[in-house]
C-alpha cells in the first residue's frame, strides 16, 4: 500500500467511525470508564466520584455501562490504566485526580476518538476537557466557622500537595477566619499524599499537639476526623464527602463534591453526540459544591452567619477572594472590591498576607 | 521545648507512631533468624488490620480485636510456610505474592467495615506516675499495646539469647543441615517462627486500624510492611536494635510533621529519605566489618531446606 492510498483508507475509516458512532451507540451501551487515585472506600474524594459514577447508571440505565479502576497511583501507572480503559472500548473516560494530568494528555493524543475528562487540571485538547469545583467557596464557610469558634486561635490545615487547588483552600480559609477573628493564625502541614490514613492521622495529631482546635484537611481519608474525635474539643469539616459518621462533632460541617449532575450531563452529551471539550468550574451556585449540614455544635449566630455567606456566594453576590488583599510578601494582589480572574485563580501559587507558613519549593 | 518543638510530645507521638512497624519488624526478625525470608509482611499487616478491626467492631472488645489480628496474620504466614517449607517454592516470589494477596483479600473482607468507628483501646492508668513532669507523658501515657510491644521486644531478645529453644531457632537459621543432623526438626521450627512473625505483623496491623488511625480503610498500611523489612536489615538482626530502628523511622515521620506544624519550612523529602539513607549506610558499615567477624545475616537466610539434600 503506498502512502496516498493508506491516507485515503485511514481518512475513510475515520469518517466512517465518526458517522457510525450514533448508530452504534443506539445498539450497544455507551461505555464510560473512571480512574480513582484512592480506594472507593476512602469515604472522601474517590468515594464521591464513585457516587457520581453510580448516578450515571441510575439516570441513564441500559444506555450506559460504567467501569472504574481504583487505587491508581499518580504517575506512569495512570497512563497504563487509562490505556486499558480506552482499549476496552470506553468512549468517555474520567481521570479524577490532579496528578493524572500528563498521563491523560498522553493517552488522549493516542486515542483521538475517545473523549477524556480530567478533574482539577488545566491541560485540554480536542478530545480532552477539564472540570473542577470551586472548593475554596466551601473553605470560606469553614474559615468563618473556625474563626468564630476557635478558642486557641490556632487553625490547623493538612495540605496534600502545594498545588493551586490546595493553596486556594488554605488562603480562603485563612482570609475568612481572620475576617471574623483578627488573632487567628493558621498552621499548615504538608502530607505529600492524597491518601495515607496513618500519615494523615499523624499530621492531625501534630497539629493538635501544636494547639490547634480546628483541623481542616485537603486529604482524602477520614483519619484526621477520627484523630480529632479522640482528642476531644477539636473540630473538623467533612472533606469532599459529607463524612456524616463524625456528626455532630468533631465534624461540624462539610464541603461535599457533588459530581453526579455533571457526570450525567456529560454522559448524556455523549449519547446525543454533542460532547465537546471545555473547561467547567462549578461552585456552590451550580450545585457542584454543596455545604453539608452545619451541626448543633456550632452556635446559632455563627450558623446563621455561615448560611448567609452560602446564600451570597450561591447568588453570585460575594466572591471569597475580594480585595483588598495582599500577597504574603506584602505586595498588592487585589485592590478594594476587586475579584480575581478565574485564570489567575486557577494558577494561584502564593499565600496571602498574614499566613506565616512558608510555601514549599 | 527546643526550637518550638515540644520534645515530650514528640517522643510520646513517635512511640505510638512506631508501634506497628516495631511489632512487624520484631516478628520478621524471628522468622529471618530461623532462615526464612518472608517478604509478605505488608500483606500480613493489612490482613491483621482488617481482621483486628472486624473482630473488635463485631465483639466490641479491642483485646479480642488484637487477638483476631494476630491470628489472621499467623494464618497467612502459615500459608506462606506451607508453600515455601513443604512445597519448596521460591521464598522471594512467594513473599511478594503474599503481599499482593493480603492487600486484595483485606480489601474484600473490609468492604462492610468502612466508615465505622472501633471501640476505643484503653490507656493504662498509672495514677500519680503519669503526673511526673517530662517522664510522665513520655512513659506513662500510652495504651497497653505500646507496653506490650516493648515487652515483646525484650522477650524476643531474651528468648534468642538465653532460651534453649532460641538457640535451636538460631541454629536452624545459621545451618539447617547441621541442625537437621543433630536431630532438630528444621521445618517445624521454621513453621513456628513464621507463624510468630505473622502474628506480630497482624498485631501491628491491628494497632494501625484500632489505635493509630483508628478506622479501617483499604490499603491503610501504605508501605509500613516494607519499612519493617528495612528495619530488620538496619538492626543487623538484633532485637534491641530493631527497637532503635523502629523508633528512628517513626521518629523522623513524627518529627517532620511536627516541624511543619511548628512553622518550619523544612525539606520534607530529605527528612523522609533519611531513614533509608541510614539503612544503606548501616549495610555498608556491616559489610565492611564482616571481614573481621561473622556476617550479621543468618547464614541460611532465604535457602530452602529438604531433608534429602
Note poorly predicted spans of chain A.
1-25
Shape of chain A: globular
Helix count, DSSP H or I runs of 4 or more residues of chain A? 11
Which secondary-structure class do the elements of chain B indicate? mainly alpha
The CATH topology of chain B: ABC transporter involved in vitamin B12 uptake, BtuC
Mean pLDDT of chain B: 89
Using the 3D structure, state the CATH architecture of chain B.
Orthogonal Bundle
Beta-strand proportion of chain B? under 5%
Number of helices of chain B: 12
Mean pLDDT of chain A: 90
Q: Helix amount of chain A, in percent?
A: 40-55%
Name the shape of chain B in a single word: globular
The biggest chain-chain interface is: A-B, 40 and 37 residues
Uncertain runs of chain B are none
By DSSP, the count of extended strands of chain B is 0
H/E element sequence of chain B: HHHHHHHHHHHH
Largest beta-sheet details of chain B? none
Q: In oligomeric terms, what are we looking at?
A: heterodimer
The computed structural class of chain A is alpha/beta
Spatial sequence of strands, sheet with the most strands of chain A: 2-1-3-4-5-11
Amino acid at each position: 500500500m503506498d502512502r496516498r492510498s493508506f491516507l485515503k483508507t485511514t481518512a475513510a475509516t475515520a469518517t466512517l467511525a465518526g458517522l457510525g458512532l450514533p448508530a452504534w451507540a443506539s445498539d450497544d451501551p455507551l461505555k464510560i470508564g473512571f480512574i480513582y487515585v484512592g480506594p472507593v472506600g476512602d469515604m472522601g474524594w474517590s468515594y464521591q466520584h464513585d457516587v457520581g459514577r453510580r448516578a450515571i447508571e441510575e439516570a441513564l440505565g441500559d444506555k450506559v455501562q460504567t467501569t472504574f479502576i481504583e487505587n491508581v497511583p499518580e504517575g506512569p501507572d495512570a497512563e497504563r490504566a487509562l490505556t486499558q480503559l480506552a482499549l476496552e472500548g470506553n468512549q468517555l473516560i474520567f481521570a479524577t485526580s490532579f496528578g493524572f494530568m500528563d498521563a491523560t494528555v498522553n493517552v488522549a493524543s493516542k486515542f483521538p476518538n475517545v473523549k477524556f475528562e480530567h478533574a482539577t487540571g488545566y491541560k485540554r485538547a480536542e478530545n480532552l476537557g477539564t472540570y473542577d469545583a470551586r472548593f475554596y467557596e466551601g473553605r470560606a464557610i469553614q474559615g468563618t466557622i473556625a474563626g468564630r469558634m476557635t478558642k486557641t486561635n490556632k487553625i490547623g490545615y493538612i495540605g496534600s500537595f502545594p498545588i493551586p487547588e490546595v493553596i486556594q483552600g488554605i488562603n480562603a480559609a485563612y482570609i475568612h477566619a481572620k475576617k471574623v477573628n483578627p488573632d487567628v493564625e493558621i498552621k499548615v502541614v504538608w502530607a505529600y499524599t492524597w491518601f495515607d490514613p496513618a500519615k494523615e492521622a499523624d499530621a492531625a495529631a501534630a497539629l493538635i499537639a501544636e494547639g490547634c482546635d480546628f483541623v481542616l484537611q485537603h486529604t482524602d481519608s477520614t483519619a484526621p476526623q477520627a484523630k480529632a474525635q479522640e482528642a476531644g474539643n477539636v473540630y473538623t469539616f467533612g472533606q469532599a464527602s459529607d463524612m456524616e459518621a463524625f456528626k455532630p462533632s468533631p465534624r461540624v460541617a462539610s464541603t461535599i463534591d457533588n459530581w453526579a449532575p455533571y457526570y450525567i450531563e456529560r454522559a448524556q452529551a455523549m449519547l446525543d453526540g454533542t460532547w465537546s471539550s471545555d473547561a467547567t468550574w462549578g461552585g456552590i451556585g451550580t450545585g457542584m459544591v454543596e455545604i453539608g449540614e452545619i451541626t448543633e455544635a456550632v452556635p446559632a449566630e455563627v450558623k446563621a452567619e455561615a448560611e448567609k455567606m452560602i446564600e451570597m456566594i450561591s447568588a453570585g453576590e460575594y466572591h471569597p477572594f475580594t480585595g483588598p488583599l495582599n500577597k504574603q510578601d506584602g505586595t498588592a494582589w487585589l485592590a478594594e472590591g476587586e475579584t480575581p480572574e478565574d485564570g489567575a485563580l486557577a494558577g494561584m501559587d502564593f499565600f496571602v498576607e498574614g499566613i506565616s507558613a512558608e510555601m514549599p519549593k | 521545648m527546643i526550637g518550638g518543638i515540644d520534645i515530650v510530645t514528640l517522643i510520646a507521638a513517635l512511640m505510638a507512631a512506631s508501634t506497628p512497624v516495631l511489632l512487624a519488624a520484631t516478628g520478621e526478625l524471628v522468622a529471618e533468624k530461623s532462615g526464612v525470608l518472608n517478604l509478605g509482611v505488608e500483606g500480613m499487616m493489612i490482613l491483621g488490620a482488617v481482621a483486628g478491626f472486624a473482630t473488635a467492631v463485631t465483639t466490641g472488645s479491642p483485646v479480642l480485636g488484637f487477638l483476631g489480628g494476630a491470628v489472621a496474620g499467623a494464618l497467612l504466614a502459615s500459608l506462606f510456610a506451607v508453600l515455601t517449607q513443604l512445597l519448596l517454592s521460591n521464598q522471594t516470589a512467594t513473599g511478594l505474592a503474599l503481599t499482593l494477596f493480603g492487600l486484595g483479600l483485606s480489601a474484600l473482607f473490609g468492604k462492610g467495615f468502612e466508615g465505622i468507628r472501633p471501640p476505643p483501646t484503653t490507656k493504662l492508668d498509672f495514677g500519680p506516675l503519669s503526673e511526673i513532669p517530662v517522664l510522665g507523658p513520655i512513659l506513662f501515657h500510652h495504651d497497653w499495646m505500646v507496653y506490650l510491644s516493648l515487652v515483646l521486644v525484650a522477650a524476643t531478645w531474651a528468648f534468642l539469647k538465653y532460651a534453649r529453644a532460641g538457640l535451636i531457632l538460631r541454629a536452624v537459621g545459621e545451618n539447617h543441615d547441621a541442625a537437621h543432623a543433630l536431630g532438630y526438626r528444621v521445618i517445624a521450627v521454621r513453621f513456628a517462627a513464621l507463624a510468630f512473625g505473622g502474628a506480630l505483623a497482624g498485631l501491628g496491623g491491628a494497632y494501625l486500624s484500632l489505635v493509630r488511625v483508628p478506622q479501617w480503610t483499604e490499603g491503610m498500611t501504605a508501605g509500613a510492611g516494607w519499612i519493617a523489612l528495612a528495619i530488620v536489615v538496619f538492626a543487623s538482626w538484633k532485637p534491641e536494635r530493631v527497637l532503635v530502628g523502629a523508633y528512628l523511622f517513626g521518629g523522623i515521620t513524627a518529627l517532620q510533621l511536627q516541624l511543619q506544624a511548628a512553622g518550619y519550612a523544612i525539606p520534607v523529602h530529605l527528612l523522609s529519605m533519611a531513614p533509608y539513607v541510614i539503612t544503606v549506610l548501616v549495610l555498608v558499615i556491616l559489610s565492611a566489618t564482616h571481614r573481621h567477624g561473622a556476617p550479621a545475616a543468618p547464614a541460611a537466610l532465604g535457602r530452602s531446606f529438604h531433608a534429602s539434600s
